[in-house]
Amino acid sequence: MTSHAGGARPNSAAPAARKGGFSARNGWLLFAGFLMVFGGLMMLFSGISAIAKDDVFITTPHYAYEFDLTSWGWIHLVLGIVILLAGFAVIRGAVWARIVGLALAGLSMVASFMWLPYTPFWALVLLAIDGLIVWALCTAPGLTGD
Questions:
Q1: Residue 143 counted as domain residue
Q2: Confidence check: pLDDT of 2 > 80
Q3: Regarding predicted confidence, which is higher, 81 or 59?
């Protein structure tokens, strides 16, 4: 039987330091959370612009997923607020927010795809951001206890 200085185990402080300190898990979750906050804000602002009937948007005639611009504005406004709140919850470390964030990022991808005729470049940017959110939330360890 070997004894250690001070009677403490050599790795006893390591799990506590990993929980409170910066780790790969926290890094990916912070990355996903900040992208969710940014994407939610941008979706919220585009929703406000659409509701206000801003001149920023192009209307494409005979688009397969054609809705009224005000309807799209409300969809984007509500989805943006919910994504923003879930992003803050991911940053704070809530496990439920990771699962909700995945679902919301998927919904946001669908909404951005359907938003393509109105703002093509920005819809593609939001699609890429949502893809990064899904990737970061899925690759961050910790949901299965690893």
A1: yes
A2: no
A3: 81
Residue 30 within any structural domain of the chain: no
Cα distance between residue 119 and residue 12, in whole Å? 54
Q: What is the pTM of this model?
A: 0.74
Question: Is 25 within the bounds of a domain?
Answer: no
Are the CB atoms for 137 and 105 separated by under 8 Å? Answer: yes
For residue 49, how many other CB atoms are within 10 A of its CB?
19
Q: What is the pLDDT of residue 90?
A: 92
- 88, 41 contact by CB (below 8 A): no
d(CA 69, CA 12): 58
Q: CB under 8 Å to 78, separation ≥6 — which residues?
A: 47
Evaluated on CA atoms 46, 52, 58, 59, the torsion sign reads positive
Residue of 67, 56, 45, 42 lying closest to 124 (CA atoms): 42
